[in-house]
């Protein structure tokens, strides 16, 4: 009938006949059976929703019911007996014995581990449970509101007040900072893991290439990985030593507790000399009492290894443990005659430590005392969770700080490399290069010192190169001048010799020869003057000041010089009336004169020559095209047309296009060309000062 509650309650049935007496233990007092139960119900009983079932408030620390049943009168007498049924809640104290093994999980709705509670009756604390230190008087809690939550001493409390004035306070610790931060840490790590997976999926095979983009990136990744590995290793070492220290602490406490229980048992059972004298019915309440005192279950086995008594019979009754002793413990105690044995045992997936000591009589062993040690699994999990949360928070916080430090440190360490890279990229042989100031003698300092030495050597080499180039240029100029001067001097010398011969021989045509030779000499002298002027212009082209000039008008002026060529048609196309740029007007005029002159010369002998000139703006530049339909430039000499002194004309100096290229460079522009059998086109780009 009571199967559903038999595991939760101890049940005692008492049948009271009229006039029967009860003996109250341990005092041995005799009282009337009916009177005893009726007094309990009258003085301490509270009615419940079930008829004739009363909740006793005489023991506030436990749940105690008394039920009354009135059976029919007995047949052989007219007396009507009363049956009193007592229900004692068999509470398994927290941390004692086999906690989670004895709890019916089907009846549990909430996890109440970690809670504390206190009960006050008539302003006095009658019962407390848990870790919170309640005051002995209710007055200390009277200022707080009833039926509402409030915080006090790092706990969150709920105060409940009954109709008769009794007060129940339920308390739970306020979540610690590491527990609050754990949510952020877990979310941060999850988001980081998701971002990392997305990163891998996006880049795939280029993952390692991304990390190798720069030395700074590799340095940052190295710092972050190093910090993560160090924290992880520290966590593993700490967890190992925490587990090791916990094991040593548990074994030490278990040993001390086992000896204390043994001493108490020897004191209580001191007169027993043989195992047969031990009475199970007397030993059971004794072990039950010591179990609550020492906060541990206690088992006792006879010399044959069979269970005599235990403080927790439910474990053996349900078959969780055998009534026979652990054979290894029996061998250690009775075969090897050891005075103490501690081992690790297991029930299902639950591991626990268990200690065994011999219980000695005056002449022979009376049995073996066994104490198992259990840590509540919920508390163990909570402790591990707190440790995990702490390490998670430490990992995330240290990771964030590590990333920040890695960014700063990598930037600090790579700053001289960045400066060195910038300095190397700005090195020019035609200008003075700056040295890098660095006083440290580390590896980077040695590298910068080598750079500074290279800058010094480069400056020396540049000076030597400039000097050598100047000498080489002047030698080349002198050679070219000598060549250009020698060309007209040779016919001049021959003409003078011819004139001298005609004079000495009194040639009758002497007058005509003098006139012809004089004209030839004047022409050769003009050629020498032109050569001198061209070299002078080439040498002076770098020292003139630029000004704002209008290109279209200059082009028209240049075209006007060549308009007398009857077989050539000039065309100028322009989208606008004016095109301004920064340049030297005289040089620009010379530039267009040279280009148009070259175009005119390429059309010699042509009957339908055309020279088309177009101008238009293109963003920051003015683009000009000068195209002709004359004979083009051979492919093998295209790369040399802008070189000084290179010419394909017998009377040319080779400086015309070189001067054009030099002028375009001075204006910040550019010149290119295309040439083929049907003609040549020069493309000029001047900076647009109107942009």
Structure explained in plain terms:
- This protein is of the alpha+beta class.
- It folds into 6 domains: 3-89, no CATH class; 100-173, no CATH class; 185-249 and 377-428, no CATH class; 269-375, PAS domain (Beta-Lactamase, 2-Layer Sandwich), CATH 3.30.450; 460-537, Helix Hairpins; 544-687, Heat Shock Protein 90, CATH 3.30.565.
- Helix content is 45%, strand content 22%.
- The chain contains 14 helices and 24 strands.
- The protein has helices at residues 3-6, 33-44, 177-203, 207-211, 215-268, 280-294, 313-317, 327-335, 377-425, 443-504, 510-540, 551-561, 585-602, 656-666; strands at 9-16, 21-24, 29-32, 45-47, 53-56, 64-69, 82-89, 116-121, 124-129, 149-152, 155-161, 167-173, 299-301, 307-310, 341-347, 350-360, 365-373, 547-550, 568-574, 580-583, 609-618, 621-628, 670-676, 679-687.
- The strands form 6 sheets. The protein has a 5-stranded antiparallel β-sheet with strand order 1-7-6-5-4, with helices on one face. It has a 5-stranded antiparallel β-sheet with strand order 9-8-12-11-10, with no helix packed on it. Strands 14-13-17-16-15 form a 5-stranded antiparallel β-sheet, sandwiched between helices.
- α13 runs antiparallel to α14 (656-666).
